[in-house]
Amino acid sequence: MNLDGHITRLDLVGRDAIVVRDGVQITEFQEGILPWSLQRPVALVFDEFDAGRPDVMFVIQRVLERGGRFTLLDQNRVLTAHPGFRMFATANTVGLGNLTGLYHGTQQLNRAQVDRWDIVAKLDYLDVVDEVGIVAARVPSLMTSPEGGQLIAGMVAVAGMTRVGFEAGDLSTVMSPRTVISWAENVEIFGDVADAFRLSFLNTCDPAEHSIVGEYFQRAFDRELVEQDPDGELD
Question: For each of the chain's 235 residues, which pLDDT tens digit applies?
C-alpha cells in the first residue's frame, strides 16, 4: 500500500458502505486493508511509510506489539493476527523527516512507533559489479558492442562519484540506480553518452553544481561534458 497524506483511518480500518442485498439497500461495514490482511497469511507492505500522516499511522500501533491484536471498534471485535501475517514498511528517511531536502512530503514519525518495529534494515547502494550487471540486464542492447561493458562501468562510476559528492556536501542531489538505467536507455535512444547524461541527470541539478558534475563525467569518460563546436558555440 503506497502511503500519502490523503490516506485516512477509514482507508486502513474500513468504513460503512451502502450495498444491495436481495434487491434491498443496506448499510454494511467493509473492512479496510489492515483488518483484511491481519486475518490472512499475507505480507502487508506500507510503501513510503513516512509519507503517511503520523496521527493516522497510530492505527497500527497495537498491531506492532508482540502478539498484538487489533480492536475493530466499528464491530466490537478484537482481531488476532494470523500466524502467517507479516507487516513491513519502507521509507527513505527512517522516520526522521525531510532533513536533506530531497524527500519533500515526508513526515517525522513518532518515536514511540518507530521503536515498535522489531527489525530496521538499511539498504545501501549496490556494489559496482552488481549495479553494472543490473544496468546491462535492463539495457542489453548496449552490450552488443565491445565497448558496452566499459560504457556502463563509466556510467556507474559517475553515479558513485555523485553519491560521494552528496555525502560530502558538494552536491544537493544524487544519482540513483534508477537514474543510471534511464541514462543507459537514453544512450540507446540518442546515441551519445553526453547528451543522454544531460537529459537524464545534469538538467535536474542546480546550475551552480554543473561544473562539479561535469568534472565527474570527465573523470569517467575522459571527455568534456560541455564541448566547443567549430563555429565557437557551446554544445
Answer: 988 878 888 889 988 888 888 888 888 888 889 999 999 999 999 998 888 887 888 888 888 887 778 888 777 888 999 999 999 998 877 655 555 555 555 677 777 788 888 888 888 889 999 999 999 999 999 988 888 899 999 999 999 999 999 888 888 888 999 999 999 999 999 999 999 999 999 999 999 999 999 999 999 999 888 643 444 444 4
Domain shared by 108 and 17, yes or no: yes
Q: What are phi and psi of 3, to 5 degrees?
A: -90, 150
In the chain, how many domains are there? Answer: 2
Indicate the pTM of the whole model. 0.69
Q: Domain containing 209: what range? A: 128-221
Distances (CA, A) of 129 to 34, 135, 143, 148, 171: 39, 10, 15, 14, 24
Helix 148-168 to helix 128-138 angle (10° resolution) is 130
